[in-house]
TrEMBL record:
<keyword id="KW-0406">Ion transport</keyword>
<feature type="transmembrane region" description="Helical">
    <location>
        <begin position="84"/>
        <end position="104"/>
    </location>
</feature>
<keyword id="KW-0813">Transport</keyword>
<dbReference type="Pfam" id="PF00950">
    <property type="entry name" value="ABC-3"/>
</dbReference>
<keyword id="KW-0812">Transmembrane</keyword>
<keyword id="KW-0472">Membrane</keyword>
<feature type="transmembrane region" description="Helical">
    <location>
        <begin position="239"/>
        <end position="258"/>
    </location>
</feature>
<dbReference type="InterPro" id="IPR037294">
    <property type="entry name" value="ABC_BtuC-like"/>
</dbReference>
<comment type="similarity">
    <text>Belongs to the ABC-3 integral membrane protein family.</text>
</comment>
<comment type="function">
    <text>Involved in the high-affinity zinc uptake transport system.</text>
</comment>
<dbReference type="GO" id="GO:0006829">
    <property type="term" value="P:zinc ion transport"/>
</dbReference>
<keyword id="KW-0864">Zinc transport</keyword>
<feature type="transmembrane region" description="Helical">
    <location>
        <begin position="170"/>
        <end position="201"/>
    </location>
</feature>
<feature type="transmembrane region" description="Helical">
    <location>
        <begin position="125"/>
        <end position="145"/>
    </location>
</feature>
<feature type="transmembrane region" description="Helical">
    <location>
        <begin position="213"/>
        <end position="233"/>
    </location>
</feature>
<dbReference type="GO" id="GO:0010043">
    <property type="term" value="P:response to zinc ion"/>
</dbReference>
<keyword id="KW-0862">Zinc</keyword>
Length: 260
């Protein structure tokens, strides 16, 4: 059954959307959109390092994304402005990544697939990585849900409850790095941030509880993935950007109907 490339694409898109949904709500609540972009841009450098060292692409992107997350967390903890750190990290990582890819022989022609995704070329091994990574993220969020929500609502409240908000923020950053590595094949480094943010933002006008927003983000993320793939198949457009466009349409509908 998995020999059908279209079925593999659907499973990959749904898996990436479900992996991104739990973190997307925290990205929106904590206003960490720029951090998601910085980590995603670092994935390009991970691709170059993986190609140069003959490592799996997932291993290279995950390693660099983790280093980026830890570096940003360390610099922010040293008193540097978060906006400044993320701005330097996002643009610097992308520039060094593009430069590194240009110096590696062979993969230059495939750069577009790493930037915008190549979901129709997903393999069975890629599916295992996407769904395995998504399961890890889901387990992490499920086991730490209360702590993460408390630390997001108020750091003072978290300290009073015996929760270290710095640790919870680091957990989120590391989980974001994992999602970036998982979703790279689906939507590419330049569009991963959109997969994290837009479904969660679309679910927000209709949500009354944190759990409701999480469920709404997951539902809209899956709808965006399926709608984008359908549009790509019918209109012969790139699959990754089509998924993001579908998410934007759902966000616009949510904003308009939510206000009414």
């Amino acid at each position: 059954m998995l020999d059908d490339f279209l079925l593999r694409a659907v499973l990959a898109a749904v898996g990436a959307a479900l992996a991104a949904a739990p973190l997307g709500v925290f990205v929106v609540w904590r206003r960490m959109a720029y951090f998601g972009d910085a980590t995603a841009h670092a994935a390009v450098l991970g691709v170059a390092l993986a190609l140069a060292s003959s490592l799996p692409i997932f291993a290279g992107t995950l390693a660099v994304a983790l280093v980026m997350a830890l570096t940003v967390a360390w610099l922010a903890g040293r008193g540097h402005g978060a906006d400044m750190v993320l701005g330097v990290a996002a643009h610097g990582a992308l520039a060094f990544g593009l430069l590194a890819v240009s110096l590696v022989e062979g993969p230059r022609l495939d750069l577009e697939s790493y930037l915008f995704g190549d979901i129709l070329a997903v393999t069975k091994a890629d599916l295992a990585v996407i769904w395995g990574g998504g399961a890890l993220v889901a387990a992490l969020i499920l086991t730490r849900w209360g702590r993460l929500v408390t630390a997001t609502v108020s750091e003072d409240l978290a300290w009073a409850a015996g929760i270290d908000p710095r640790r919870e923020r680091l957990v989120l950053m590391l989980a974001l790095a994992l999602v970036v590595a998982v979703a790279l094949k689906v939507v590419g480094a330049l569009l991963i941030g959109a997969l994290l943010i837009i479904p969660a933002a679309a679910a927000r006008p209709w949500s009354r509880t944190p759990e409701g927003m999480l469920a709404g983000a997951a539902t809209l993320g899956v709808a965006s993935a399926l709608g984008g793939l359908w549009a790509a198949w019918v209109l012969d457009t790139p699959a990754g950007p089509s998924v993001v466009c579908a998410a934007v349409v759902l966000f616009a509908l949510s904003v308009v109907t939510g206000r009414r």
